[in-house]
Write a sequence for this structure.
């Protein structure tokens, strides 16, 4: 399931994968690095198990492998997919790797015959996703959220 | 799995259900009634199978049962759910039944410990969802769509 891309960071190689075995502690470390609020590992485990697609990005140096990026998607396996939890280790940002991660994710969803790929973008990443071809509020469609009181 | 509510239309009773056995032809008929584009039944079947929650609304008159509303949600079973395909038969609209259908759907998702309930609303139903407590673009979060070329 490992696939090499032309993206490189220093002398190391960068790999993308859809393998479903993700070390929860390594993923938590990655999310910590971007300052996300901690989530119960039990719930993270359940969320990964019930995601349609898990995409991980790895730096490989010699025989050492390090999780440096991640994204996942929920889906009905037919029409729609929604991408969540896109994260790239800050030390590996601004090298085009986030873009490569997303392109890989889109390709995998397209290969699964999913036509409608959606996500909810924080204000500071709207432009990032726009450059990848995501449209904001197409035809006036609005993303809406319901939170408990 | 059938649950009665206080909502009534004429002399008939209205039931809500999360039963997963939905007649695909009856659902297609319902979607036809609101003018949706036909979708391949094979894909609809797959989408229903891989949805986290199916909610159906039924009119019961005597021993006859009729599908008059539907909604479904994809989810990671832990953090997020996204509601799709909300439909109410036009003959049963403007009676508060769409609102009842959505409240039932939200309740079921909340009972499953899903905290973040999302959807993508067409412009003409944004106000409907707002009245149900859905917020548009909270904290500047934007719904974004990627379509194939």
């Amino acid at each position: 399931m490992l696939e090499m891309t032309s993206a490189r960071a220093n002398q190391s190689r960068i790999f993308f994968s859809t393998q479903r075995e993700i070390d929860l502690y390594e993923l938590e470390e990655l999310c910590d690095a971007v300052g996300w609020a901690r989530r119960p590992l039990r719930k993270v485990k359940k969320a990964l198990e019930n995601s349609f697609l898990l995409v991980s990005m790895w730096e490989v140096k010699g025989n050492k492998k390090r999780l440096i990026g991640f994204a996942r998607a929920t889906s009905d396996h037919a029409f729609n997919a929604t991408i969540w939890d896109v994260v790239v280790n800050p030390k590996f940002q601004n090298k085009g790797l986030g873009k490569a991660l997303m392109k890989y994710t889109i390709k995998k969803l397209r290969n699964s015959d999913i036509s409608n790929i959606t996500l909810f973008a924080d204000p500071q990443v709207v432009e990032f996703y726009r450059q990848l071809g995501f449209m904001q509020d197409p035809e006036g469609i609005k993303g809406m959220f319901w939170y408990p009181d």
Summary: The first strand of chain A starts at residue 3 and ends at 9. The helical segments of chain A are 24-33, 41-49, 97-111, 126-131. Chain A touches chain B through 51 residues (CB under 8 Å). Residues 97-111 of chain A form the longest helix (15 residues).
